[in-house]
Specification:
The protein has about 475 residues and is an alpha/beta fold. The chain is about 40% helix and about 15% strand. It has 16 helices and 12 strands. The strands form 3 sheets. It has a 5-stranded mixed sheet with strand order 3-2-1-4-5, sandwiched between helices. It has a 4-stranded antiparallel sheet with strand order 6-9-10-11, with no helix packed on it. A 3-stranded mixed sheet has the order 7-8-12, with no helix packed on it. β4, α8 and β5 form a beta-alpha-beta unit. α5 crosses α6, α13 runs antiparallel to α14 and α15 crosses α16. The longest helix is centred in the middle third of the chain and has 15 residues.
Length: about 475
């Protein structure tokens, strides 16, 4: 059976004076079928509308959606339909529920009471110029009160935990109150593990939420309608504020954004509620918000770091050691004025005094494996013995290298010892002898002597190499 599109195609080709054979070749259909359709078109017959097949449960769709909103499973919905006298199989109900959930244009609209909920998110808005004239990646933070759609926007240059929290505090100050719930995206700043049922918040965000007396609610993964209001807000500010505007610097951007938020965004008639957000906020929602805390929340500088192979993390241009068991793992840091705390899975694993300046190390010896914490004299004796096992000239060059490179002898000596894995001890010994005669103490040059066979060449004997 031909579809509507093909019916229109044949009609269009007829209007261009193509005959039956030409249309059949162009469309790939049998000429008899094309001729039959052409006959109907010439008679003025329109393409018959496809008969819509009414599903058995279509009349109950609204009720089924309501049950889904209440959290009922397909099994319970099947039972309730049977109770209402609607006889159908469980598989039919299950497939019908599945089709509703998969519908790309169907979602459950969630209504909230005044003061009950706010939604927050970051949105990337491109690059802007800061006050130093530097071009920087820029995001916009948005907190939207779900009932009134009253918005707070703020420009930021990163998505760190402290930035996330500072934006919250600024938004609460703007609203002069705190909602009962704050619905957050699965941001790294606030949620470490994207699980709607068992979220693992970073400790500092939990403390912040407790201090301000609200409950954070993470959105479920891949369910954008959980946070649809604020995502619409991000899209709105991108298209209606950032698009087509230029800013001299960071302060200019902040001034323009505040002016636009108060004078345009919150005074418009909202597309969904058909009400003005500021009026709804002032008349209905403001009085329902919880009061701001009496004391200020102390934000310590926090974040995550990966423990490097040398058992250190890099924080504000300085290095702090972490127990070697955590090498390669992501740890959290809590940086106050005097201390740096390192936390792994809610457990404090080390504390350091905070370093000032740059390029400094705070190293706790016990953080290294025991074999890495040998004293300098122990290492010297151990490597001297290994060189002596190869021969007297190899031991002799050990002392010369120590004298020439008092602070960096280790790598050179270790390199010479590694030659014994590729060449015979006799070869290494003769190469070291030749190196001593010609005052050569670099690993690469001794390696070249072994490789080239130069150790077999005659040398002028020098007594001092036996001293």
């Amino acid at each position: 059976m031909l579809g509507v599109a093909m019916y229109i195609t044949i009609k269009t080709l007829m209007e261009k004076n193509l005959n039956t054979s030409q249309i059949a070749r162009a469309t790939g259909h049998d000429w008899k079928t094309v001729k039959k359709v052409m006959k109907k078109i010439k008679s003025g017959e329109e393409y018959p509308e496809k008969q819509i097949r009414i599903k058995k449960l279509d009349n109950s769709k609204e009720q089924i959606i309501k049950w889904l909103e209440e959290g009922l499973s397909a099994l319970r919905i099947h039972e309730k339909l049977l109770d209402k006298g609607i006889v159908t199989s469980y598989s039919t109900v299950k497939n019908f529920v599945s089709s509703i959930k998969k519908g790309s244009n169907v979602f459950m609209r969630i209504h909230t009471a005044p003061g009950e909920e706010a939604q927050v998110d970051f949105g990337f808005v491109g690059c802007t110029v800061d006050n130093m004239g530097k071009t920087r990646k820029t995001w916009v933070f948005n907190m939207k009160l779900s009932f009134s759609r009253y918005d707070y926007y703020e420009k930021v240059y990163d998505q760190r935990v402290e930035t996330f929290i500072e934006c919250h505090m600024n938004a609460f100050d703007f609203f002069k109150g705190v909602p009962k719930y704050v619905k957050i995206d699965n941001l790294k700043a606030a949620v470490l593990e994207a699980s709607f049922y068992e979220p693992i918040y970073q400790e500092v965000y939990k403390q912040f939420a407790k201090h301000y007396n609200f409950k954070p609610l993470p959105c479920r993964v891949y369910t954008p309608n959980d946070k649809g209001k604020v995502e619409s807000g991000i899209k709105y500010v991108k298209n209606n504020f950032f698009a087509g505007r230029s800013f001299q610097n960071s302060d200019d951007l902040d001034r323009q954004l505040a002016r636009w938020t108060n004078g345009t965004c919150n005074l418009r008639t909202h597309g969904t509620t058909r009400k003005i957000p500021k009026e709804e906020f002032e008349s209905e929602e403001k009085k329902m918000l919880r009061p701001l805390p009496k004391s200020e929340f102390n934000i310590s500088k926090v974040g995550t770091r990966k423990v490097q192979i040398d058992c250190h993390i890099f924080v504000e241009y300085n290095y702090y050691s972490v127990p070697f068991e955590y090498v390669g793992k992501e740890v959290e840091i809590d940086l106050s004025n005097k201390l740096l705390k390192v936390i792994y899975q809610h457990k404090e694993i080390t504390v350091h005094p905070r370093l000032s300046g740059r390029g400094k190390f705070s190293t706790i010896k016990e953080h290294y494996p025991k074999y890495k914490t040998k004293s300098a004299s122990q290492m010297k004796n151990e490597y001297q013995a290994k060189m002596a096992e190869i021969g007297q000239f190899t031991e002799k060059i050990f002392f010369r290298i120590k004298d020439k490179q008092p602070n960096h002898w280790y790598k050179t000596v270790k390199g010479i010892l590694s030659l014994a894995h590729k060449y015979s001890p006799e070869t290494v010994e003769l190469s070291c002898k030749r190196a001593l005669v010609y005052n050569v103490y670099e690993y690469q040059r001794i390696k070249n002597i072994c490789y080239s066979g130069a150790y077999n060449l005659p040398i002028d004997f020098q007594e001092e190499i036996y001293e």
